[in-house]
Amino acid sequence: MSAGGRGQFRIIGGIWRGRKLKFPPAETLRPTPDRIRETLFNWLQADVPGSRCLDLFAGSGALGFEAASRGAAETWLVERNAATAKTLADNIRLLETQRVNLHRSDAIELLGTTASPFDIARPFDIIFIDPPYNANLVTECCDLLEHGHWLSDRAKIYVEHAARDDAVRVPADWVNLKSKVAGQVAYQLFSRNQEG
Q: Partner of 28 at 20 to 30 A CA spacing, among 13, 79, 105, 162?
């Protein structure tokens, strides 16, 4: 269940603050709760304005829409499920924004391809990784991001996973900036280099 009620979530900051967006009810769709999103975007407050964001495994789109609301210049939502992608497209139209884009694709397949729909000459500054909890996709996703020229030099990478999971393995030069656990959810923010 979302923080905003069954089948909807609330944007909590920025130009769309208070707007409620729908998502199709499904067991695997669990928008990042308000409290965690507030903490995350406090961590990222200096990084979001003007940034280029990639929301992998977008689901409800809560993280991507929140980033756009708070000033990200360009946000891409990646979602493979047809019904979920349709709702994301409906929400983009509802918000009447050109700064949020949707790409229907499997995130791992997308990161592993050289025929990207994105302009890789302009790498991403902020990446959100919040896959289905039982899929064991985080480590592979991080490796593909690092070795596929997706990341800007000082990219920030947010990872959310079940607290019961083992520690997330990330590329050796990534720095863990922040880590927290809230109930059944563990979440971490990494920087691609020491300067972060």
A: 13
Question: Whole-angstrom Cα distance, residue 82 to residue 139?
Answer: 25
Bridge partner list, 189: 158, 178
Q: Write the DSSP symbol of residue 92.
A: H
Token pair of 76, please?
A: 């891409």
More confident residue, 44 or 166: 44
| Residue 193 DSSP SS3 | coil
**In contact, 41 and 70? CB cutoff 8 Å:** yes
What CATH superfamily is the domain 8-191?
Vaccinia Virus protein VP39 (3.40.50.150)
d(C-alpha 128, C-alpha 189), whole Å: 9
Sign of CA dihedral 173, 179, 181, 185: negative
Nearest to 161 by CA among 122, 188, 192: 188
Total-model pTM: 0.91
Strand partners, 10: 20
Q: How many CB atoms lie within 10 A of CB 48?
A: 24
Q: Is the pLDDT reported for residue 61 higher than 60?
A: yes
pLDDT confidence band for 183 (50 / 70 / 90) = confident
